[in-house]
């Protein structure tokens, strides 16, 4: 096949063909019809897998890139998936892991990604409006859902395909993939109680985010069942900088009755809490214990004494992309909802 590709490249060079390869260029190199190449690149299931893979390999070797404008005029689709992604520091590897999962699910399909930032303190509804208005994508994935998320409302009203990473409290159903944060907080609290700790605390996400309510509910259910004292970490949250979290726990030791059991929503907050308490003379596993949500191996590599509960963000990314492709194909929203544990 490489010889075929090379001969086609040499032929174009001798004939003075344009430098940008076309479907015809790929067809000549593959020795098949242009229509077959087009269908193979579009992932037509009527074309054999062997042919599809061969055509994609030849197209990649030649540097063929589909003309998005022409595709949009012909089919009304862009073959683009948009992702609104957070520049999030608390969850290690969040963007990388999520995008890796999305990319894995889109492999072998005609879809490509565009990634735009979603800022921590806002829903970035302007980016959503821009995508819809200019027909920049066939579907959208976004994270950090709010209880009454304006992006969900707008996309639902416009009937624009989307899947959110997280749930909302809208009465109208919509596609989502979410992690069971109720179960995480409940299990984390139960583990700390089982260790014999006397007073629990939890760092929550910002209150406007839906999973903050899920975590709070799980935590409160566990402490009320056990009848154990608790407090909520007041003045810090999931988005707080590491230095702020560190100082909070250091200074908490200067006030009466500090908690000796901490639930952290991510690895950064756990490491910050450990540092702050160490500065105050407390040792992990002795004066206190932590259960943290883990999305990488960093925390356990640095602090093997920390108890963790794993959230697989790559798996979440795969499900987000798969559900979005189903939604684009017209699947009902009621079957496009998944909660991961």
TrEMBL record:
Tree of life domain: Bacteria
Residue ranges, compositional bias (Basic and acidic residues): 1-13
Where in this protein does the record put region Disordered? 1-23
> Which Pfam families does the record associate with it?
LacI (PF00356), Peripla_BP_1 (PF00532)
Keywords, sorted A to Z: DNA-binding, Plasmid, Transcription, Transcription regulation
The HTH lacI-type domain covers which part of the protein? Answer: 21-75
Which PANTHER family does this UniProt record tie to the protein? Answer: HTH-TYPE TRANSCRIPTIONAL REGULATOR GALS (PTHR30146:SF109), LACI-RELATED TRANSCRIPTIONAL REPRESSOR (PTHR30146)
Q: What is this protein called?
A: Substrate-binding domain-containing protein
């Amino acid at each position: 096949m490489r010889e075929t590709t090379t001969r086609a490249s040499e032929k174009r060079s001798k004939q003075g063909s344009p430098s940008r390869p076309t479907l015809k260029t790929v067809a000549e190199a593959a020795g098949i019809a242009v229509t077959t190449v087009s269908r193979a690149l579009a992932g037509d299931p009527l074309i054999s897998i062997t042919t599809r893979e061969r055509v994609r390999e030849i197209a990649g070797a030649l540097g063929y890139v589909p003309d998005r404008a022409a595709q949009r005029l012909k089919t009304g689709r862009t073959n683009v998936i948009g992702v609104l992604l957070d520049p999030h520091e608390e969850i290690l590897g969040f963007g990388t892991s999520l995008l890796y999962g999305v990319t894995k699910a889109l492999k072998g399909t005609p879809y490509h990604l565009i990634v735009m930032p979603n800022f921590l303190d806002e829903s970035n509804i302007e980016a959503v409006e821009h995508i819809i208005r200019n027909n920049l994508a066939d579907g959208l994935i976004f994270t950090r859902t709010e209880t009454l998320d304006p992006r969900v409302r707008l996309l639902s009203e416009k009937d624009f395909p989307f899947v959110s990473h997280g749930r909302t409290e809208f009465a109208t159903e919509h596609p989502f993939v979410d992690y069971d944060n109720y179960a995480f907080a409940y299990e984390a609290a139960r583990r700390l109680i089982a260790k014999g700790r006397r007073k629990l605390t939890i760092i929550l996400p910002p209150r406007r985010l839906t999973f903050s309510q899920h975590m709070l509910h799980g935590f409160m259910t566990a402490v009320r069942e056990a009848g154990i004292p608790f407090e909520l970490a007041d003045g810090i949250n999931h988005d707080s900088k590491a230095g702020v979290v560190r100082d909070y726990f250091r200074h908490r030791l200067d006030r009466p009755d500090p908690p000796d059991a901490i639930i952290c929503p991510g690895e950064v907050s756990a490491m910050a809490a450990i540092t702050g308490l160490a500065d105050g003379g407390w040792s992990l596993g002795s004066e206190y214990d932590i259960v943290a949500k883990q999305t990488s191996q960093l925390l356990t590599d640095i602090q093997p004494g920390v108890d963790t509960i794993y959230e697989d963000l790559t798996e979440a990314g795969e499900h987000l992309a798969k559900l979005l492709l189903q939604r684009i194909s017209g699947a009902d929203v009621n079957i496009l909802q998944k909660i991961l544990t």
